[in-house]
Write the C-alpha cells for this entry.
Amino acid sequence: MSMTTEKSRIACEIDFDRNGRQAGYLRAPLSRNTSGWGIVEIPIIVVKNGTGPTVLLTGAVHGDEYEGPIAISRLSQTLDPGAVQGRVIMMPAVNVPAVHSDTRLSPVDNRDMNRCFPGNPKGTFSEMLAHFMDSVILPMADISVDMHTAGHSGDSALSTNMHDVGDPERMKRTLEAAAAFGAPYNVVFSGVDEGATFTSCVERRGIISLGTELGGWGRVSVEGVRIGRRGVDNILKYFNVIDGDPETAQADGSPATRHMMVAEPDLYSFAPAVGTFEPCNVVGEQVFAGQAAGYLHFVEDVDRAPIEIKYKRDGILWMSAGPGRVGRGDTVAVVMTDYAPSN
Ligand SMILES: [Zn+2]
C-alpha cells in the first residue's frame, strides 16, 4: 500500500468510470529553468464498456525499452470500445522524461523510477510519479502487465516474468495468465532490489501481476514487438475483455510458453572488473555449468590476459550483457532453469 495518504500533485483529466474511449494526459508539475510553472504530459488511454475486469498495461517505466510501448500504443489506437467488456487502461510512456532522453534513468532526478515505489507525492519527480501509479492507478486494476526489456544494458530472451507471490491460488492464476500471454518463456524470479519496484506494489495489492522482458540492446526486436502485440491481445482475450482465444504457438514449433525460474543467486554472473565483455552465447541458448559465459578483455593493456567468466549452473540464458564495456559488479549473464514449485 502507499506509504502516505497524501494527495498526488499530478492532475488527471480522465473519468475512469465513463464508457467509451478517452485519450488524454496526466499533468505532472515540473518546475524548470525554462518554465517555473511547467508540466510534463504523460499519455493515458482508457477504453471502457459493459462489465468485466480492469486490465492495466504500462510501458516505458524505463525510457530505453521500446517493444512494450509500441505494442500498447498500437493497441490504444485500434481497440474498439464496442468490442470491450470491462476496462483497459493503457499507459505506453509512463516515464516520459526518460523516453525523451532514451535512457533507463529519469534525466529529471537521475532516479530509476522502478526503484522508487511506492513513491512519495512530495519527493523527486520519479517518486511523485511512482506514488501516483500506486495510489491512483493501481487500486482500479485487476490485472497488470508492466512491459520491459533489458534496455541498453543487456538483451533478454523473450519472456513474461512474475514473482513467487506465496498465495498458491494467486500463484496458479498468475502462471495461467502468463501462459495466456504466450511469450516463449515465463520466468518466476527473485530479482535484485525487489521491494521498490512497480510489480512489488502490484503484488502487495493482490492484483494479478506480470512483467515482460521483450528484447534489449537499445534496439527494437522485431520478434519482441510481435510477441508483445500478440501478448496484450492474448491477455484481453484470456480475461474475456475481448472475444477470442489466446494464440500461444511458438516460433520453434512448441505449442505453449515454457515456464522457467531464477531462484538462486548463483544463476547471476557479474563482471569482476572494468573491461570489454565478449559474450559466448546469445539469449535463449542452452548453457552449462563450467562453460565460459564470456571473456573480460583489457584491450588497452598489452600484458593483461582476459578473465574467463564461467556459468555456475546449467540452464537457458535469460539475460546477456550488451554494451561491450562493463564495470565491476555489472550483471553479464542470468541463467534460468525449468520451473519447479517451491512447495
Ligand atoms: Zn525496464
In short: The first strand starts at residue 11 and ends at 12. The domain at 11-262 is CATH 3.40.630.10 (Aminopeptidase).
